[in-house]
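hey
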């Protein structure tokens, strides 16, 4: 920071750019380390939803032949795992009051030490804020992805039930045609 040149406004901008650059450099490896963990959590959720859907499918395959006399093998559920995005760093302003407007009245020879002490005191807060934000954003991304998988599983089950309801709602005369169509589909 001692090598930075310029007035208070310029050095404030340099601090913000430097902080954003350093935070990005330090948080990117942490985010990359979180990606496999998030993928593992998403994989576990997908396995659980798959077991629920397959149990439903097996129950349908076991219970439909009794009343209808038709053996049905429902389609398999294929989940599309969502993509998890990386999280960028966010840096706040060096001053809440815009002291940089007074750059002409505050020469850096006089306020340089105070400025450096002030902005170095902000670094722990910026680090904590961005670590918390990174963890929250990853948790939200994983939660949204699990919610998407749940929606896919629910939609598949509802579609199977709607198809079954349509088939069972037809008249008896159409049952033979339905049996023939199901036999051809299998």
């Amino acid at each position: 920071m001692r090598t930075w040149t310029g007035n208070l406004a310029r050095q404030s901008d340099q601090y913000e750019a430097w902080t954003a650059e350093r935070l990005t450099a330090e948080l990117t490896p942490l985010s990359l380390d979180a990606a496999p963990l998030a993928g593992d959590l998403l994989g576990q959720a997908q396995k659980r939803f798959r077991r629920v859907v397959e149990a439903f499918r097996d129950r349908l395959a076991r219970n439909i032949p009794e009343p209808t006399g038709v053996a049905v093998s429902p389609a398999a559920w294929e989940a599309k795992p969502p993509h998890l995005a990386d999280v960028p760093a966010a840096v706040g302003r060096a001053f809440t009051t815009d002291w940089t407007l007074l750059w002409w009245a505050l020469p850096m020879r006089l306020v340089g030490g105070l400025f450096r002490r002030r902005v170095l005191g902000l670094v722990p807060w910026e680090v904590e804020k961005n670590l918390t934000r990174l963890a929250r954003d990853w948790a939200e991304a994983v939660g949204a992805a699990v919610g998407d998988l749940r929606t896919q599983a629910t939609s598949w089950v509802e579609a199977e039930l709607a198809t079954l309801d349509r088939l069972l709602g037809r008249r008896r005369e159409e049952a033979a045609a339905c049996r023939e169509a199901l036999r051809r589909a299998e």
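Helices lie at 8-63, 65-68, 108-168, 175-185. The chain is about 70% helix and 0% strand.
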